[in-house]
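Reply to dn_fold:

You asked what the input looked like. This is it:
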Amino acid sequence: MPYLPLFVNTSKKAVLLVGAGNIALAKLKLITDFSENITIVARNFNGSLLEFVQHSSIKLIKDDFEESHLNNQDIIVAATDDKSLNQQISELAQKKNLLVNVVDNASLSNFIFGAVTKRGDITVAISSSGSSPVLARYIKQKIESVLPLNLGKLAEFLAKYREVVKEKLSNLQVRRLFIQDVIEGNVAGEILAGNEEVAKQLFLEHLKNQDNNQKAAIYFIGSGPGDPELITLKAKRLIATADVILHDRLVSPEIFDFVRKDVIKINVGKKRNFHRYAQNEINDLIRQYALQGKIVVRLKGGDATMFARLDEEIDAIKDLNIPYQVVPGITAASGAAASLGIPLTKRNLVRSVKFLTLYKNDLIRPEYWTELAESDDTLVFYMSSNNIAEICQKLISHGKSTTTPISLIEQATTQMQKEYGATLGSFADQYQDKEFLSPSLIIIGEVLDQYKTYAWKEESKITGKYFSDLEVRV
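and this is what came back:
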């Protein structure tokens, strides 16, 4: 069951905790971070719990639970070791439309606790929707290890100067970018180092130099070949600043986890025989949003400079006098080769690589195929799977050996990756009825001859056994 994550102001909410053992104590330690209006009902109180509450205003009732204990309460937590009593508390609380949590029993609860990391006013809560509290705690530990212990000091500093910033920078976009600069820059570093006075001077000087004008910018970004973890750190940082994202069809959905919720996302992707937007319309959209003062990200699959019409899009905006950058990504050839464990070059055998895509006139130009057939380069064809039979035939007819290895890789670097290997002479017959999924990449050359020798070998952390990627690849 999915749970909507909410942060509720509990400072004025009355919390009733039923139970006073170790489980109740664990929940109490969490609740006291967010509320002081707490009542505990139990017949017997754990010594550790009594020690924990001795200097607090928590009210203790030494008695068996009764329905009347629910009166004037807002949040109920059942933490007894009596399953039938916990169920009774849940039923009574829900009849009264109260929030109730039965510890370690999500089916009896209408809310659940997350695994919480707290740094001052910064709270991070992780939930597995009740399916695996251990996993939620594991994620919490990972987060704990990377968040500075005094991160709350940064939140306090930003809150202290929030109105000053709003008064100086009324433009929301400018204000957001300024705060992001502060968080990522020297000001935050000085605060976390305990140098608040130095941080204050840097902050006010930086604020003084800001103007309130919308800051347009254009970023042409390669998102990588498919695996969302292969995106660059710079790309992630710039995507997070975007007001508008014009993205290709093949950009991994997980990449959009890095963007703001209010960002405008427009799918301008193309596939064979279907274009949502013509290239001139894409160019016009980039111009249009940039002229509105927006930060525009043109997000492309793979690398932004590889068969992505980057030159046309830059030509369309370079007269605007608006800053732009090109951020490279891992191209599909590198991603596919790495996922197979093969080198694209090999010392004393293959010294270079040709990145290719087929245009209509290439299919009828004999000199084009003669050059490729006589080359010892590794040949990589993008967006050409529909012509793979003709590629094999053309290369063979112009002198390439029929035994030359060829591989077609579908959806490289993703969990859906599939690899179809053969030779130039056998590929068409071996896969004659196969329709290959997009995106597909074709690699041709001697580097494929022994690629099984170089396939990934990973160790299972459960069994300790080493296995080849070829054994587990879909």
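The chain has 18 helices and 21 strands.
Hope that clears it up.
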